[in-house]
Design a protein that fits this description.
The chain is mainly alpha-helical and about 150 residues long. It is about 85% helix and about 0% strand.
């Protein structure tokens, strides 16, 4: 199973790189061709997209490390730093989503047009809460077993 997870994470990293370099810029050009009034958002959109994808790439790289640690049977409380790093990357993504939402709203774009942005932020928030609950629950278990 760990090989399949490692392969999936590696393929995910390659797909993200492809999206960052080719798909995202061409998609922005396509949107501008259809809606010329959003031309001023082209560069910020590409930059935001690359940084947002980079957050998930960092999660995938850290995930590869977690898989490696689990594979050798050494995942213990000292490995929780890896999970906290994942939480940090996901929180950075949430900040990017919130910033984009605020900026687009202030520019007059309506929230219904940003449903994907809202969904991505909420899904990421659910993942962060789940990881924090796991870390918190295991912190309590560790403290009670030590004391």
């Amino acid at each position: 199973m760990s090989f399949a997870l490692t392969a999936a994470l590696a393929v995910g990293l390659l797909v993200c790189l492809f999206v960052q370099v080719w798909v995202l810029p061409s998609a922005v050009v396509g949107v501008i061709a259809v809606f010329p009034e959003v031309d001023r958002l082209a560069v910020p959109a590409v930059v935001w997209g690359v940084v947002a994808i980079a957050c998930w790439q960092a999660v995938a790289v850290i995930g590869l490390r977690v898989v490696a640690v689990v594979r050798i049977g050494r995942f213990d409380s000292s490995s929780y730093g890896l999970l906290r790093a994942i939480v940090g990357c996901l929180l950075a993504f949430i900040v990017l989503v919130a910033s984009a939402f605020i900026a687009l709203t202030m520019m007059g774009y309506s929230p219904p047009a940003m449903l994907g942005l809202i969904a991505a932020g909420l899904l990421t928030l659910v993942i962060v809460v789940a990881l924090l609950m796991f870390l918190g629950a295991n912190s309590v278990v560790r403290q009670s077993s030590q004391g």
